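Subgroup meeting minutes
Present: P.N., E.W., G.H.
Scribe: E.W.

1. P.N. recapped why we're keeping a running log of single-chain structure predictions: easier to compare across weeks, and new members can see raw inputs and outputs side by side.
2. G.H. added today's entry (975 aa).
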Amino acid sequence: MADDALANRMQLPRPDTTPEEAAEILQTHYGLSGTLSELGSQQDRNYRIDAGDNAYVLKICRAEYELVELEAQNAAIRHLRAKPDAPRVPDIIPSLNGRDILALTIREQDYLVRLLGFLPGQTLTRRKHLPQAVAAGLGALSAKLARDLADFDHPGLHRSLQWDLRRAGPVAVQLLSAITDHEARDRIAKAMVAAVKRIQPLASGLRVQPVHHDVTDDNVVSHPDAHGQQVPDGVIDFGDIIQGWLVGDLAVTCASLLHHADGNPFYILPAIKAYHAIYPLEEAEAKALWPLIVARAVILAASTEQQLAIDPDNDYVRGNLDFEREIFDVATEAQPDVMEAAILRAIGFDVAPIATEGWTALLPDLDRQGIVAVDLSVTGPDFLDGNWQKPDMDWRLLAQAAIASGAAATRYGEFRLSLGAPRSMTAPQNFALHSDICLPAGTTVAAPFAGLLQRQGHHLVLAGEDISLHLDGIETTLDDGAPIEAGATLGTIGSEGSAIGGLRVQLCRVPTLEPPLFATADQAEGWAAICPSPAALLNPSCEAPRPDAGVLLSLRNARFAKPQKHYYELPPQIERGWREFLFDIQGRCYLDMVNNVTTLGHAHPRLTAAVAQQWSRLNTNSRFHYSAVAEFSERLAKLAPDGLDSVFLVNSGSEANDLAIRLAWAHTAKKNILCLLEAYHGWTVASDAVSTSIADNPQALTTRPDWVHPVLSPNTYRGPFRGPDSGPDYLNDVTAKLQAIDEKGEGIAGFIAEPVYGNAGGIALPEGYLAAVYDAVRERGGLCIADEVQVGYGRLGEHFWGFETQGVTPDIITIAKGMGNGHPLGAVITRREIAESLEKEGYFFSSSGGSPVSCVVGLTVLDVIADENLQENARVVGDRLKAGLIALMERYPLIGAVHGSGLYLGVEFVRDRETLTPATDETAAICDRLLDLGVIMQPTGDHLNVLKIKPPLCLAPESADFFVEALEKVLRDGF
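Output recorded in log:
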């Protein structure tokens, strides 16, 4: 039972003081004045004071708290300030008479008063979502504080406090008496009893030391790192500091994270790992951690209910009510054995394996080595053309394998592709914790170990001494509760009129638990410890190897040249695609909103079949004569405006743009090329030379050769001239550049530009801009090149070519990316006399650009675009998507503009809609958060503050809606 003093203090409301009285205290005792605003507190009165360049916190505490307790808080702050690498803590501000703590009487009530410096930084509690890195940062901060307090001591630490988790049981009993809701009271009481039951056997082995005991999202401040990510680095209040369990300190931190966890208790694991890396836990502490988290959740819930009954006007407590109820719900609904195992494994402690020596055969009629394991993973060879989406596809493949071999089994520990649902913001529950065996009906099933039989309908459980065997699919006459000897027959495989039947096999360490069949990837380690592999009862091949994306990424980084970057710091390992979706090795399905390479969508069956057929027949180079190269060239020429009748086939957009520049040089016998700032055209020598985007090359503006003449990018949103009527101002810059070239007498070879400003997110050029530039260039004998690599080929919806939006006809068109649907294919379309100019330099040849396979790819892509009406789909779904994004812009000021048309869109993020300050860090964080929610997205633009939305043209309306919903969740909940 809690002592009388503690029981009395638990009943106290906040001090009854007013802002006016607080202002008088400040003026009289500290010589300060300023603007006061009240800060929240459970049982104190806290005021923030803004006084010019300085800010302070006035803390008023009831006199029932002893002076020595406040002295301990101040001593701890000074102790930490003396440590070189300790977390940031507030300054202690003495009164005019030099005292750190004042004893004052206000309206006949005695109080203790202190003044601290206000610690700058952002708090975390009101952010619904905290990235894992921030959660880990909170764990690291907790560890640093505990490490630095280990050598601190003070008499005021040895006190009775309701938050001391060593006293959680008695405190809960005291708090429960104030809760009138019987259902809530019973639930809270049961949770505490269960937690205490798990803590008690471990209590004697838990280390005790000075602990802050309140390193929570509400009690720390953070600062942004170089990438804009919040790093918790300061602690603002020491009111709960005690001599207590070290691991209890971490439990407090972890509990505070649960209301950011979207219902997933495993969200806390990065915080635990970060803590352990700095201040290692002992095994007993790791085992006690989860029940202590539950105990903290119980105390929070009970204390809030009680405090509201005492102090109903306490907005701070009322504001935290929903958070604390969510913490309680997440903590009490998790399976404690699984959480213990997950925590142990996360920080490197082993969970003892099950001893299988002496187990007898589960299937004595079968040769275990003859059981064939069926691969149902993301890379499973039997999954083609989206067939994994068919109902019962896993079972069909299992049955086919069993018919062919006699017996077949699914693999334990496998991430099932069929369960990776599209358009889901949460990871799939697809990690198999069991094996299904398809085998002849009537096959005997025997007990591998002794135990008691439990019958739950058709579900049988053989409960052994330290493990239970769960079985489905057996016909048996045994009674519930029957004792079973090892090797005894349990029953036979049921048939239901078929020659084959199915047996489901699962092991579980927790006797009373009916375990799930599948777990999510982040929960797999915990559940796998509780439900170990049944491969010992079948054969080793019935356990799937665990994918290790980290090892593969290390290999890539070691051997794949560093300039070849990858998306994301920790990228998912993508191993399959289908339509507008990508699947990682763990079966997570992502909506691909960035891949304009795959116009038709991933793994299109017609393209797959066409490539396989052509490759089986012939693949060589274009100097041979075959039908596909002639047919494809004819198709491309017919898509171009009249007069553009000659086609070059290459391997990429970079090569296409490089060749276009060479054609301009050869045809005009001039060298100078006009291009736009902030543009990207490729990586070859010539195409890179006209690429001026500093996002792609930070040195772009200072390293261009002298034949490259960039002009102002006609960005009507954030350029120097803005709005739809800004075209003439941008044309003035073009005129000036051309006149400068004229004055040198060097002439102009050409002008290259995207007809829609793709690299900036699909911004439309000012009306009439290209017509005027084309005229000016042609007047000087130059050629006009339309780079359609990103924006052309039907992507804009309303138009097949981007230059059609400006009502112009270029001299040269370059295309690539989507024309090959991922196959390396590019093209240049121009007039015959321009094409033949290249012969002055010799003939042109591309080994695979015009190969039979490449040409068949190109033909098939055009056929599918037409047959599946993908350009119209780009228009209709693009309009729907853009309307949804514009609706978000009306609610979230971070969105400054929505650019583009069809399925080439850009969402530009700004910190201020007047100044247009680019929200670069925010955009990167939004992309990372979208990945968490199952969306692949990347930033673009010179400031990397634009979402470049360019999905496959088969994008379904539901997928467009899902993207808008995911983006709204990010903007609403935080990133």
